[in-house]
């Protein structure tokens, strides 16, 4: 019987999912991309794409959130072979952190060395505006969950992985240079991950600002922890889709998130395409 361990599912489950994907294409990706709410438009720019539905991949969860297409794409983007998740899994959907992070383990098994993770996030930093793109410099995991809990498989990573550079300094410098060259201000800050699915209260936002958070969301942290455990280099970008609770005198909604990501998609595509080319 397979032992369920820190990676989420057993190495056999990871390899079974990877083998299924490998049978669908001869392309071998080295860069993985996880697209947040409304940001899956990047998939439209992949050349020679092979598309696989999540529900067809062994042991993959299914994405249930509007703005998450629920499909895996493998092909060429900016001259590099990539694997792109058009939609992700969230713990608020009922998945444990091990399942949320499972696709990252599969990417590693397929040969991925670099992960570009994106999300739509609420702006906590009062200097930010809706529609800004924020380079993630670090994160705070306040979900109360971790994908590495449980027995550790040393073939996948060490028991106590270092998180002092969760988001690559090298790739952050590259992203800053690209944004400057494209003529826009790329914000930079700390992303805090909460469990959701409720948006935060104004009091919670004040608390998070005191703790040093610049943006807040309900994803990303489990995936990045699993990636760093596996030795994958990570760069993260948040789309500030709305200002967090209590900053503006208006309610928060997922509709606003989708509208904002649509508005900034051109700038987002320019940044990520150039970043992929430079990796």
What's the structural blueprint in terms of helices and strands?
Layout: H1 11-22, E1 31-35, E2 47-53, E3 71-77, E4 80-86, H2 97-100, H3 102-110, E5 114-123, E6 133-141, H4 169-182, E7 187-193, H5 202-211, E8 215-217, H6 221-229, E9 233-243, H7 254-263, H8 265-278
Helix pairs in contact: 1-3, 3-6, 4-8
Question: What string gives the helices and strands in order?
Answer: HEEEEHHEEHEHEHEHH
- Could you tell me the radius of gyration in angstroms? 18 Å
Low-confidence stretches: 1-8
CATH homology-level superfamily? Nucleoside phosphorylase domain
CATH class: Alpha Beta
- Helix/strand/pairing category: alpha/beta
* Largest sheet features: 5 strands, mixed, barrel
Number of distinct beta strands: 9
End-to-end Cα distance, whole Å, is 40 Å
Tally of DSSP helical segments: 8
Strand order of the largest sheet: 5-8-7-6-9
Q: Residue-averaged pLDDT, rounded?
A: 90
Helix content: 25-40%
CATH third-tier fold name? Rossmann fold
- Multimeric state of these chains? single chain
Based on CA inertia axes, which overall geometry fits? globular
- Sheet-strand content, in percent, reads 15-25%
By CATH, the architecture is named 3-Layer(aba) Sandwich
The tally of domains stands at 1
Task: Give a description of the structure.
- Strand 3 (71-77) and strand 4 (80-86) form a beta hairpin.
- The chain has 279 residues and is α/β, with parallel strands linked by helices.
- It has one domain (28-278): Rossmann fold (3-Layer(aba) Sandwich), CATH 3.40.50.
- The model is unreliable at 1-8 (pLDDT under 50).
- The protein starts with 10 loop residues before the first helix and ends with a helix.
- Helix 1 (11-22) crosses helix 3 (102-110), helix 3 (102-110) runs parallel beside helix 6 and helix 4 crosses helix 8.
- Strands 5-8-7-6-9 form a five-stranded mixed beta barrel.
- It has eight helices and nine strands.
- It is globular.
